[in-house]
Design brief:
CATH class of the largest domain: Alpha Beta
Shape: elongated
Radius of gyration: 24 Å
Number of domains: 2
Largest sheet: 6 strands, mixed
Oligomer: single chain
CATH architecture of the largest domain: 3-Layer(aba) Sandwich
Helix content: 25-40%
Number of strands: 15
Number of helices: 11
Distance between the termini: 42 Å
Structural class: alpha/beta
CATH superfamily of the largest domain: P-loop containing nucleotide triphosphate hydrolases
């Protein structure tokens, strides 16, 4: 599956300050791409450039294989929700969507009803103004606004920020439905990493304006999933003993640890086999790193508390 969006050396400079620099992002068609970073890391700046709301200082990017002046017509295929949704608080969900439909030349009869159902707002009181909505409802209405014109991709900046647990679940289910049933590619930024790990297929870590790492869900599992870590003074013979008890899924990482990705419930048997063979066992434990743990390792951060 090819890249639906790609950037090459993308920077944004304000005066003498680099907001972001040398950004190389690759978003595959049909996936949810999670852009990770603390507030001020540069996530919104990147999204504004990719959605056409801000001009890169240099570099280039492509969407649907088009670059430069070719991007004009293609931007209609990109829906955007940057920061807070621009809603008319005294108008209903239907009326807010109708105004944008008219502005974009999209026939709205029947179309708006489908959009409201798609984002779970089909039962909202048609007379109720958007200003009376919960934050989660406003975010879902913002997503519906981004979907007008049937874009192939949507860019969402912190859509779950500030939501209560129920609101977060509702947004997650909405985004999963858009990806799985409607085949829409989604780029989403968030610093709620536990929730993002349940949703995204690929990730990019942004730190102080730089892309520190980019990886898929499968690559993430190999980096921070659950596995047994073993440290001994003799990796060669340790591996021979592990193989004798049926361990086949293992590798030696860059720190010299043997990482076992199977039969995690047999860590005691692994330790016994190593010690019985007369090999010095320095460490053995089950690693339970999360996406947050990996993010903190990459950025040099620390857990709170």
């Amino acid at each position: 599956m090819g890249f639906i969006m790609e950037t090459k050396g993308l920077p944004k400079t304000y005066g003498n300050k680099d907001a972001v620099k040398d950004i190389n992002i690759h978003v595959r068609e049909g996936e949810i791409y999670g852009l990770i970073g603390r507030n001020g890391a540069g996530k919104t700046t990147i999204m504004r450039m990719l959605s056409g709301l801000s001009t890169p200082t240099s570099g280039s990017y492509s969407i649907f294989g088009k670059t430069g002046s070719e991007l004009g017509p293609q931007m209609r295929n990109v829906g955007v929700l940057i920061e807070n949704p621009g809603l008319y608080p005294n108008l209903s969900a239907y009326e807010n969507l109708k105004i944008k439909c008219i502005g974009m030349g999209v026939p709205y009869k029947g179309y708006i009803e489908n959009l409201l159902e798609l984002v779970g707002l089909e039962n909202v009181d048609k007379k109720k103004g958007a200003g009376q909505f919960s934050l989660g409802m406003r975010q879902r209405l913002g997503i519906a606004l981004a979907l007008i014109g049937d874009p192939k991709m949507i860019i969402l900046d912190e859509p779950i920020n500030g939501l209560d647990p129920q609101g977060i679940v509702e947004i997650r289910k909405t985004l999963e439905k858009l990806r799985d049933e409607n085949k829409i590619t989604i780029m989403i930024s968030s610093h709620i990493l536990d929730e993002l790990s349940k949703l995204a297929n690929s990730y990019g870590i942004i730190h102080e304006g730089k892309l520190m790492d980019e990886f898929t869900t499968d690559e993430l599992k190999s980096r921070c999933g659950q596995f047994v870590l073993i440290k001994t003074g003799d990796n060669g013979n340790t591996i021979k003993e592990l193989e004798k008890i049926g361990i086949k899924d293992y590798e030696i990482d860059h720190d010299g640890y043997i990482r076992v990705g199977e039969q995690l419930d047999k860590s005691a048997a692994m330790a016994k086999a190593i010690v019985t063979a007369g090999i010095d066992l320095n460490e053995i434990y089950i690693n339970n790193d999360s996406l947050e743990d990996y993010y903190l390792r990459v950025t040099g951060g620390k857990h709170n508390g």
